[in-house]
Q: What sequence folds into this?
């Protein structure tokens, strides 16, 4: 059972769920666009057997503040402030889709803070054809202004994001969703290739890998985390 908490980071309240032994190594999980910490509920208990798992609601999502000012860089800074507030020096970091972009931005700019990195079906930062999303009907659990701001950045990413991928020092597992995913898979393979310590595994489940194939997802990520912790096991 996860405990619910919140912390103030630079005037923004960030909600998070935490589970696992207090003295276990920290694992931080970042959700996709329009999701929140509960999106990890199926797989977080598996990781919480060996890690202290922190699942955040990024700004503009869920129970965190919706401050009206949004960018992927601000989300990166929020996560860094979260690590500082909880005195988490180095963490294992898992990010899905948009959360994976936030994760690699943090790993680029603060490589010393990320021990091992998992990127689940994360697009390579290259310009793509822009489309205008339609607002869903009814009450939302996220700020629609945030969606528009983030989508603009994903459509036209900063060129430096791609150039700085080689700054990431963390052992990295890139999990691809295969042909059922809307994310171009050749870009995901290239993303892994550009990382100094990247490797790729494909689980043909589409974009929502950890939801569609939770057993296969946790199996692949656990094998990676454990082998990265003991590099002699993989040469």
A:
């Amino acid at each position: 059972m996860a405990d619910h908490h919140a912390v103030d980071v630079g005037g923004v309240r960030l909600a998070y769920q935490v589970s696992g032994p207090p003295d276990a190594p920290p694992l931080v999980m970042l959700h996709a666009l329009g999701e929140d910490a509960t999106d990890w509920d199926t797989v977080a208990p598996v990781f919480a057997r060996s890690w202290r798992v922190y699942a955040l609601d990024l700004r503009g999502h869920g129970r965190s503040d919706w401050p009206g000012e949004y960018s992927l860089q601000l989300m990166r800074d929020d996560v860094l402030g979260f690590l500082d507030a909880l005195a988490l020096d180095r963490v294992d970091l898992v990010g899905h889709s948009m959360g994976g972009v936030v994760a690699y931005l943090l790993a680029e700019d603060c490589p010393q803070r990320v021990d091992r990195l998992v990127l689940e079906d994360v697009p390579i930062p290259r310009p793509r054809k822009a489309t205008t999303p339609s607002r869903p009907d009814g009450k939302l659990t996220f700020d629609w202004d945030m969606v528009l701001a983030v989508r603009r950045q994903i459509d036209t990413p900063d060129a430096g994001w791609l150039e700085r991928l080689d700054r990431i020092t963390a052992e990295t597992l890139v999990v691809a969703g295969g042909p059922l995913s809307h994310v171009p898979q050749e870009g995901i393979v290239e993303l892994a290739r550009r990382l100094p310590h990247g490797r790729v595994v494909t689980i043909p489940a589409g974009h929502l890998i950890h939801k569609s194939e939770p057993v296969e997802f946790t199996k692949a990520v656990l094998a990676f985390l454990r082998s990265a912790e003991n590099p002699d096991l993989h040469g």
User: Anything to note?
Assistant: The first strand starts at residue 3 and ends at 9. The chain is about 35% helix and 20% strand.
